[in-house]
Amino acid sequence: MANIENKVEELLENTINKLGYNLYDVEYVKEAKNYFLRIFIDKDDGINLDDCEKVNNAITDLLDEADLISDQYFLEVSSPGVERIIRKEKHLNENIGNEIEVKLYKPIEGNKQIVGILKSFDNSNVVIEVLEKEISIPRKEISLMKTTFNW
After folding, report:
1. Which H or E run includes 51?
2. Cα–Cα distance measured from residue 16 to residue 69, given in angstroms and rounded to the nearest whole number
């Protein structure tokens, strides 16, 4: 499904940028028996419902014409939210020096969830600083990474 996500991102990015938004991410998933194509948009002063509607109207025909997805799906356009999922290299780059939460498939140092400052990353590992100690986490062991927001 990642291939579909990449193709959709390539198709839509310029159109979304011309409308004054940034394309944060594209997600194509199956939940129960339904498929969802989720387009996450962002701009400096935040996203509201009118922004989502504007982008939805601008991309619907493009998606239909390109016919990249053979299955019937639901299109959702939304903000990535305050706590954003980190899935791509660009997301990691944007968050160097910021606090993130990492969830793991199996424990590292007794923890399946680590919150700390993202120090660096490469193709194999993500390095998080926790209490002045750096922890190198193999990327294949990460189930989810997201930014944190202290309420």
Report:
1. helix 49-66
2. 19
| Residues contacting 55, CB < 8 A, separation 6+ | 16, 19, 21, 39, 41, 77
Q: What is the pTM of this model?
A: 0.86
User: Amino acid identity of 70?
Assistant: S
CB 103 within 8 A of CB 116: no
Which of 143, 116, 146, 113 minimizes the C-alpha distance to 129? 116
d(C-alpha 18, C-alpha 14), whole Å: 6
- The pLDDT score that the predictor gives to residue 1 is 60
Question: What does the pLDDT look like over 54-103, one tens digit per residue?
Answer: 999 999 999 999 999 999 999 999 999 999 999 999 999 999 999 999 99
